[in-house]
Design brief:
four-stranded antiparallel β-sheet, Aldehyde Oxidoreductase, domain 3, 137 residues, 20% helix, 2 helices, three-stranded antiparallel β-sheet, alpha+beta
Length: 137
């Protein structure tokens, strides 16, 4: 599971969704030839990234290289059932990454375009938002 080794503050505030602002950071292809970018804002959980990664790797086999461009570092807390108010904040349940539109999630290199499209199609079904396929020109 993808969790950070060490964080400064174990429990974060929830934050605020800023609408459909296009992400300027992490929106260009850096490593591979083909990329999968987000089209909608979402919180992506660790297990969703892992299942998408496994779907891609299962199709690629030994060919090609995969890069994961997002890191799950935001802790989400949850209180147990039947706990009254005023008992403090709950324990960390899982980690997420905040993905804005335009953010690249995965990159692939060393495969054909058809293989990359199929791999990203399988990965998109595991993710909680719409995505788009990008080719580095």
């Amino acid at each position: 599971m993808l969790i950070p080794k060490k964080v400064k503050h174990r429990k974060w505030n929830k934050g605020r969704a800023r609408g459909r602002v296009i992400d300027s950071r992490g929106s260009s292809i850096s490593f591979g030839t083909y990329a999968l970018a987000a089209s909608e804002p979402a919180w992506v959980k660790t297990n969703q990234i892992e299942s998408a990664r496994r779907a891609i790797i299962r199709l690629l086999g030994k060919t090609g290289k995969l890069w994961i461009r997002v890191v799950t570092d935001k802790p989400v807390t949850k209180k147990p059932p039947e706990v009254t108010l005023g008992m403090g904040k709950g324990n960390v349940e899982y980690y997420v990454t905040v993905v804005k539109p335009g953010r690249i999630i995965f990159e692939i290199d060393g495969v054909t375009e058809a293989t990359a499209r199929e791999a990203f199609r399988l990965a998109t079904s595991k993710l909680p938002m719409k995505t788009k396929f990008i080719i580095n020109k």
